[in-house]
């Protein structure tokens, strides 16, 4: 079993070892796994030059990640609960699956997939609500060497089709619908619309979950329960190379369509288990709950892979934090005696707004560790979480990482690293952060602020962007040759602690979800009356950042003017999904552009923040008059 660091001194020692001899450090950890064939070399890498990035961990090793979840844990954990599923409706019964039961279900579904012609290397898209079958589907893919590409169930038909098409997925696994609070959300209509535009998908497997009345399309759609009928539980894991693709997960960047971030088998496996155990200080018998959706990377790494590799008991929740009431999270914590609880700052802020009573009326004494992820946590929310939820006795692990990093990069180790509100604190062993100025010069020493990069590979890092390796280089490795660019700004304080400030690119972090401004603009521009638009983020009390859209329209009648905001929101919902809907829309007659036609977002951001006092140099603008008009329309302080 993978060792856990148990003191701060040991952390510093391990960190030192991991930097002075990374191959020995990760090689020793990798010894704990079940390999069909051991690796020849721990690491082979380059961040620059022809074909870069080229990163290979555990070179020529052969393994299957599910053998390391199941076969490796089976002797000791067959009857231990692996997954607890808490349904949306608290009146309904939970589901508990032991490692033995989960293993059987994974093998059975894996056999079903095989029977339907899915084989090693095929891409399988998964579009499911937070049900146990989501974890079963991903593990079954991994078992047979198929590459899963999970699409968050809140995305629209267009967004789903784009992702399916980019990955050329052969199959889609989905359900009739999902539950969220009082709502039963039908999914089959969205799926049918998406599949009409996705010729690569030959079959779709549909889970019966909400019992919505749906039509199956003959020859294409099959019920999940029919797939596993007679499928049997005899299944030998496919032998995978260390660097064979495990999954693709799409994420937004500053430009263009979402990128398919690619993670591979061995490095991701080693990294997610190691970080899970160390950051959360998970101990055998603990019950761990991460409230993320598996449609995002947090759910991949810290609901499914990390915890299950570690032999943990992990909770999955289908519902929302505020239904039936704002005490739901704490009901669940009490119900299962949760020991480690991991959520997002946006959820914390939403609950702060509901008042302390919801927390105080529940028994939260089982809690040992509290975690946050997804966006910077403000000090007020941190204190509320620490003092009220954790009663001052639970360390908070503010974990900074990204879809691209695969696992947690900068974070306290619970109970070992002294914490400070809003600081992600120190890098994990094996992680070598560096701060640079815009010219790429390293900012040495402490008390500095700059662009956060990583200068050495870690096992969980992305290997490429699916189907477009050049784009991976362009996006992450070209700004500062030899460094991985995170896209975040950060400060290293006098003690050497890192505080993440936020994105330095055109990505808006809305409720912890990454939204590319270009994507939202593209969606808005689909409205027939829209000529052009510019989207920026602005501070939002609950969401962290809200979406502010400045839109130029063709001449509108009074009636059209009245409806335009709603129509624009509906257009964005259609092309991306409700998470990308602008919070504020301002119809303008022009946008501040430079003479070369570039929109000066800096100005729009300031106005969006409600501060037009210091707009900087506007002399290069093509038409400085538009700025005044926008300021007047935005009703901000001048
Ligand atoms: C895991 C995840 C990544 C972006 C990242 C940063 C922000 C994540 C954070 C944080 C401050 C933290 N972010 N964790 N900012 N403190 N603890 O969220 O992945 O969806 O790819 O987002 O989220 O801006 O660059 P992803």
UniProtKB/TrEMBL annotation:
Q: Which residues form the AMP-binding enzyme C-terminal domain?
A: 519-598
Q: Which GO terms describe its molecular function?
A: acetate-CoA ligase activity; AMP binding; ATP binding
Q: Which GO terms describe its biological process?
A: acetyl-CoA biosynthetic process from acetate
Q: Which UniProt keywords apply?
A: Acetylation, ATP-binding, Ligase, Nucleotide-binding
Which major enzyme category is it? Answer: ligase
Q: Note the Pfam families from the entry.
A: ACAS_N, AMP-binding, AMP-binding_C
* EC number(s) per entry: 6.2.1.1
SUPFAM superfamilies given in the database record? Acetyl-CoA synthetase-like
Domain named AMP-dependent synthetase/ligase: residues: 70-457
The Acetyl-coenzyme A synthetase N-terminal domain is annotated at 11-68
Q: Which family does it belong to?
A: Belongs to the ATP-dependent AMP-binding enzyme family.
Q: Which NCBIfam families match?
A: Ac_CoA_lig_AcsA, PRK00174.1
Protein name (record): Acetate--CoA ligase
- What organism, scientifically named, is this protein from? Tangfeifania diversioriginum
